[in-house]
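Re: that backbone. Tokens:
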């Protein structure tokens, strides 16, 4: 994300050294990384708190796209998306449209909210607002991309191409640490007509071993038709989780795409009231899940309601997962949840 932040600024700087475009618009309930710039555009209060004095003051946050928490009663997808797009449009006007570099979002929010996906039509609506004012549409797919949601890029399901995209994690499949930034042809052409270079660099970049590993990962995904398996097993995982946990009094929401699923836990299902953080619900679920009895891991998260309160877990099986594996995952997750909440009540 550091590279994406710099690239987006340089794009405007190439054609106007006095460009007024200095502002970013990002979202509450987002997480883009722990370096200063990436943390600065993140909307994750708990992770920002120790470093607030260092963070950029040119980042302005609007509300998240969280259908479970933010949709009004009876509100359709169309109306929900229109309301979110208006909020972005209003923020452009408030800041001054010609001062905004771009809007940054995760198509499916990972760590901060627990696999909260975009509502159909949302990505297109937000991109259209950005382009209306000549700003860039920037997507962070470090966690949700490279096939995790069933398409190589999460935005492909909506056919909404970003101007800048970040990717990582799945790009190396855990074999090598690697991340990448992709930019549109338009941005390439602007740079080539100007400085002909990206004014940025890192000590460890363009490493041939990591690049070779990532290339082989992409070849395997294509050769073994793993996107089809992600979609197929993802549908089966969703159905299974909903079948065993939807009626649980402390399961508020089950959401996600592909093999990227989150479960949010609540104290009161009707009001969606979260547990007090002192109970450490998500951590308790992880602790039991990784115990010898169950021998599996989940990704625990907190703050999914307001940055402090709210517990969720993420379930993200490998792309080669089988139906038998998914059955085992569903059974173990269900058992862990039942035990943790029984013990909590006791």
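Recovered sequence:
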């Amino acid at each position: 994300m550091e590279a994406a932040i710099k690239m987006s600024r340089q794009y405007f700087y190439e054609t106007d050294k006095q460009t007024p475009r200095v502002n970013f618009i990002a979202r509450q309930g987002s997480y883009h990384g722990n370096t200063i710039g990436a943390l600065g555009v993140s909307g994750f209060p708990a992770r920002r708190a120790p470093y607030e004095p260092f963070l950029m003051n040119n980042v302005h946050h609007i509300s998240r796209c969280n259908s479970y928490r933010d949709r009004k009663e009876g509100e359709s997808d169309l109306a929900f998306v229109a309301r979110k797009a208006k909020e972005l449009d209003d923020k452009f006007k408030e800041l001054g449209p010609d001062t905004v570099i771009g809007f940054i979002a995760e198509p499916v929010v990972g760590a901060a909210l627990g696999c909260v996906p975009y509502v159909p039509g949302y990505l297109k609506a937000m991109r259209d607002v950005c382009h209306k004012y000549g700003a860039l549409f920037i997507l962070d797919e470090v966690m949700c991309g490279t096939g995790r949601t069933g398409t190589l890029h999460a935005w492909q399901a909506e056919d909404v191409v970003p101007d800048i995209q970040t990717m990582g994690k799945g790009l190396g499949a855990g074999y090598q640490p690697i991340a990448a930034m992709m930019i549109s042809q338009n941005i390439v052409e602007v740079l080539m007509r100007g400085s002909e270079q990206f004014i940025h660099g890192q000590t460890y970049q363009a490493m041939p071993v990591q690049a070779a590993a990532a290339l082989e990962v992409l070849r395997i995904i294509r050769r073994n038709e793993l996107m089809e398996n992600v979609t197929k097993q993802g549908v089966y995982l969703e159905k299974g989780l909903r079948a065993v946990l939807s009626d649980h009094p402390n399961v508020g929401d089950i959401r996600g795409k592909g093999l990227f699923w989150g479960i949010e836990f609540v104290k009161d299902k009707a009001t969606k009231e979260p547990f007090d953080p002192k109970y450490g619900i998500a951590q308790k679920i992880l602790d039991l899940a990784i115990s010898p009895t169950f021998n599996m891991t989940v990704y625990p998260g907190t703050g999914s309601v307001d940055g402090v309160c709210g517990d969720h877990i993420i379930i993200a099986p490998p792309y080669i997962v089988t139906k038998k594996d998914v059955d085992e995952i569903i059974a173990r997750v269900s058992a862990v949840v039942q035990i943790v909440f029984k013990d909590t009540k006791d």
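Residues 323-345 form the longest helix (23 residues). The mean pLDDT is 96.
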